[in-house]
Amino acid sequence: MSVAVKSGASGRLPTVLVSSFLTPALAALRDLAPEVPRGLLLRVIPRGWRRLAARLGCATINTDHRRLNPRLVREIRGDGYPLLAYTVNDPRRARALFDWGVTSVFSDVPDIILPVSVEDPVRRLAAGLHASDELQQGAIR
User: Fold this and answer.
1) pTM here?
2) How is the chain split into domains, by residue range?
3) I need a surface site. Which of 7, 11, 24, 41 has the fewest CB within 10 A?
C-alpha cells in the first residue's frame, strides 16, 4: 500500500490518497473510511479494470509506466480517472507520458523529473501546484 500526500495551502491536514495492489484492503478502506480517496494500484491494467475501480470506489488508476501506451492512457483518462504512473526516472519518458495524458508520475528522482512536469505552463496551472508542493508529494503532476 502506498500513500501520497498533497500539501494543503489552507493549514488543514493534507489530502491523502491511499493506493494498494490488495483489493481487499481497498474494499475495507471503502467500508471503514469512504471519505478517504483510494487509488487502484496495478502492475498491468486488466480487462475488467472499470468494474473493479467502480466497485472499490477508486479515485485514481495507478500503474507501471512500462505497461502504458497512448491508446490505454486515452481509455482510462476518457473514463474520467486520473492516471498515475510509477516509477519514472527518465525525463524523456516522463515527457512522453505527460504528452499521452498521464496525470502524474511517481519518481525516485523528482529533482530530475520536476522540470519536465512544469515546462508546460498549461499543465502546471491545471495541476494548481507550486514546485515545492510537487516535491513533497512523491507523485509529480
Assistant:
1) 0.76
2) 2-140
3) 11
